[in-house]
Amino acid sequence: MGTTSAVRHSAGSGPGEDRDGGGGRFGRIVRSPLGWMLAGMVGVGLVSGLTATGPGPVPVLGAVAAVAVYWYVMRRVARRSTPEIARSGAGREVLLGGGIGLGFILVSALLITAFGGYSFTWAGDGFMSVVWTAVVVQIGAAVTEELLFRGLALQALEQLWGSRAAIAITSLFFGVAHLGAQGANAWSGLAIALEAGVLLGAAFLWRRNIWFVVGLHFAWNTTEQLLGIPVSGHAPEGLFTVDVHGSDLLTGGGFGLEASIMPVLMGVAIAVPMLVRAHRNGGIKTRRRAGR
Questions:
Q1: How far apart are CA 219 and CA 96, in angstroms?
Q2: CA terminus-to-terminus distance, the chain
Q3: Parallel, antiparallel, or unpaired: how do β-strands 118-122 and 240-244 relate?
Q4: Which segments of the chain are extended strands (E)?
Q5: Angle of the 58-72 helix axis to the 33-51 helix axis, nearest 10
Q6: Is the Cα torsion angle 166, 258, 209, 64 positive or negative in sign?
Q7: Is residue 252's pLDDT more than 50?
Q8: What is the mean pLDDT of the chain?
Q9: Handedness of CA 102, 105, 106, 107 (dihedral sign)
Q10: Which helix (H) or strand (E) element contains residue 53?
């Protein structure tokens, strides 16, 4: 923590040099919140596009590269420190977030099953290959999506308009980003915005730590995939096959569990105390703060 603070305050000796970096008007634009947000999203998005569906460990390597791109944009372009991706305590944050994500999906699936919506059958073979594929793919997805939506977009918009506007806008766009998936519709987009956009945004505002949110997101997606439930409309191979019965409002239909009313209600219920804690900890910002 002391190291990042020291680097932050030594990033430029003169006011003009620190703000513009010798780039004049272009430098000011790039170093504005929207400027570094867009620069980072292009870089992280490019890495994700090139590695997300790669073979073997390529998605994990892509996640590492995405973190490096994020660090570079934040430190060299935005001229700010990056405590949200600090290695100290990262393992603890991943485990804490992962526990919440695991419980969230298991309880949601159990409730849907209890109401007659799901029945599961063991798929029968390929245990290690299925688990390996799920883990590496979901690491890549969780890291890159959280860097894009919570690391870049939420923090940039928060500087401009405060935390409440930032979480509302990023949640909306998170829902819109999933509208192109198989089985998506207006309801699934709204469901994703509420249960995922709001919950993950609240998780970041509470902990101010990307690794916590990555752990939550990773456990969420991986548990869904291993249960054989479509992940946001995508139906990769899992350890189980799931038969769906009843209304789409209960089961999520072809889009999967995330379009069910159960996780929507649970997600909002979990997000509210996170936001309360964030407010008590001073994690809710109401206006742009100079010098960040």
A1: 10
A2: 16
A3: antiparallel
A4: 118-122, 240-244
A5: 160
A6: negative
A7: yes
A8: 91
A9: positive
A10: none
In single-letter form, the type of residue at position 91 comes to G
In tens, the pLDDT along 197-236 reads: 999 999 999 999 999 999 999 999 999 999 999 999 998 8
For residues 143 and 63, is the Cβ–Cβ distance under 8 A?
yes
Tell me the DSSP string of 204-271.
HHHH--HHHHHHHHHHHHHHHHHHT--BTTB----SEEEEE-S-HHHH-GGG-GGGSHHHHHHHHHHH
Q: For 45-65, what is each residue's pLDDT tens digit? A: 999 999 999 999 999 999 999
Q: Which two tokens stand for residue 280?
A: 């008590």
Rounded distance between C-alpha atoms, residue 240 and residue 225, angstroms: 9
| Closest by CA position to 154, among listed 47, 259, 11, 283 | 283
Q: How many Å apart are CA 155 and CA 166, to the nearest integer?
A: 7
**pLDDT, average across residues 234-241:** 91
Question: What does 56-114 look like in DSSP terms, one character per residue?
Answer: TTHHHHHHHHHHHHHHHIIIIIS----GGG-STTHHHHHHHHHHHHHHHHHHHHHHHHH
Q: DSSP 3-state assignment of 234?
A: strand
Tokens of 1: 């923590």
| CB contact at 8 A, 104 and 266 | yes
